């Protein structure tokens, strides 16, 4: 079967934003099909290094086929970068971290993981299918309130309770197993269908975010980036939905704001330094050009945010 290629989003812009140094050390936390990683590698000199991370074992196989001694491949979640970099004695030495969030075209269309409601597949939805429990097993057990909350919190689905209720009713008669089982249930639960957005989009997004712990992984990575990056190290993150973007924006804002200390307050320079947690400088926000969106419609919701560690 022919594999569908992943079209990289904001490729040139995100690599430029890393300001790659010839012999610098970089992390690509979302290797995928390696489009960003390959471009980083092409810019590295003999002493440079790229740590390529992905939680999907299939991506790790792709990474393993790259013959280049500047790449170090790590199978696992980018949320653990602090642990990985500690192990490699690289804490505070990384010159740039790149994340291109979400799933790749391969995961969506080729791996039969149940990410897409356009195909009837086993409803697994794990990016790392060597860990955890597939979604269909959870849907056959979870209680109505928890399920409804997931659909609301991660999908902003206004019919969350109706969908949750239909799922509970359905599974009393028959176990939920596939994407199409779920699609049928959602279709019955939604009274009015929007012409411009598929009725299952929000629920599928919510369940994917939930099962892969996506938002918590981002929060953990952001916190760790402060100890992993070197001075002037860059943090460049491409997000694809408002939930992700809000977290990134809030984090960058928090660590780039200065605390205003009223003049004349009897407080030492040393104390000011201690309580001032300004660690980042926000550099830029970039969205895809009109041309990129025309050539790759999936890029339309992308936002690249860039910050630099200042101390
Ligand atoms: C959009 S794709 C990246 C595509 C890649 N930049 C390219 O152009 O080839 C996102 C990748 O990140 C991986 N991923 C998502 N969340 C992850 C996490 N918490 N830790 C590690 N990898 C993750 C997915 O498995 C997927 O392969």
UniProtKB/TrEMBL annotation:
Gene Ontology CC, one term: cytoplasm
UniProt keyword list: Cytoplasm, Methyltransferase, rRNA processing, S-adenosyl-L-methionine, Transferase
Species of the source: Candidatus Annandia adelgestsuga
Catalytic reaction(s) noted: cytidine(1402) in 16S rRNA + S-adenosyl-L-methionine = N(4)-methylcytidine(1402) in 16S rRNA + S-adenosyl-L-homocysteine + H(+)
Keyword Repeat included in the entry's annotation: no
Localization (cell): Cytoplasm
EC category: transferase
Family statement drawn from the similarity comment of this UniProt entry: Belongs to the methyltransferase superfamily. RsmH family.
Binding site for S-adenosyl-L-methionine: 54, 78, 100, 107
Task of the protein: Specifically methylates the N4 position of cytidine in position 1402 (C1402) of 16S rRNA.
Biological process annotations from GO: rRNA base methylation
EC number annotated for this UniProt entry: 2.1.1.199
GO molecular function, one term: rRNA (cytosine-N4-)-methyltransferase activity
Pfam families in alphabetical order: Methyltransf_5 (PF01795)
Keyword Cytoplasm: yes
The encoding gene: rsmH
Protein name, as recorded: Ribosomal RNA small subunit methyltransferase H
Stretches that traverse the bilayer: none
Highest taxon of the lineage: Bacteria
Classification of source organism: Bacteria, Pseudomonadati, Pseudomonadota, Gammaproteobacteria, Enterobacterales
InterPro entries attached to this UniProt entry: RsmH (IPR002903), SAM-dep_MeTrfase_MraW_recog (IPR023397), SAM-dependent_MTases_sf (IPR029063)
């Amino acid at each position: 079967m022919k594999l569908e290629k992943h079209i990289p989003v904001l490729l040139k812009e995100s690599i430029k934003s890393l300001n790659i140094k010839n012999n610098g050390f970089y992390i690509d936390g979302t290797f995928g099909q390696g489009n960003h990683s390959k471009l980083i590698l092409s810019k590295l000199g003999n002493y440079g290094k790229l740590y390529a991370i992905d939680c999907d074992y299939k991506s790790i196989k792709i990474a393993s086929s790259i013959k280049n001694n500047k790449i170090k491949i790590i199978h696992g979640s980018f949320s653990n970068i602090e642990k990985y970099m500690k192990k490699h004695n690289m804490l505070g030495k990384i010159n740039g971290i790149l994340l291109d969030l979400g799933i790749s075209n391969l995961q969506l269309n080729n791996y039969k993981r149940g990410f897409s409601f356009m195909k009837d597949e086993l409803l697994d939805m794990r990016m790392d299918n060597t860990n955890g429990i597939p979604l269909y097993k959870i849907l056959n057990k979870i209680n109505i309130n928890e399920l409804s909350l997931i659909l609301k919190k991660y999908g902003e689905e206004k019919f969350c309770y109706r969908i949750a209720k239909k799922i509970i009713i359905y599974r009393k008669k028959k176990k939920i197993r596939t994407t199409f089982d779920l699609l049928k249930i959602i279709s019955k639960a939604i009274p009015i269908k929007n012409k411009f957005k598929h009725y299952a989009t929000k629920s599928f997004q919510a369940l994917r975010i939930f099962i892969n712990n996506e938002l918590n992984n981002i929060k953990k990575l952001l916190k760790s980036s402060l100890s992993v990056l070197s001075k002037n190290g860059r943090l460049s993150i491409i997000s694809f939905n408002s939930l992700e973007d809000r977290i990134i924006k809030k984090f960058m804002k928090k660590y780039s704001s200065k605390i205003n200390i009223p003049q004349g307050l009897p407080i030492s320079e040393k104390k000011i330094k201690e309580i001032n947690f300004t660690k980042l400088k926000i550099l830029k926000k970039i969205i895809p050009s009109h041309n990129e969106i025309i050539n790759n419609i999936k890029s339309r919701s992308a936002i690249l945010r860039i910050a630099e560690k200042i101390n």
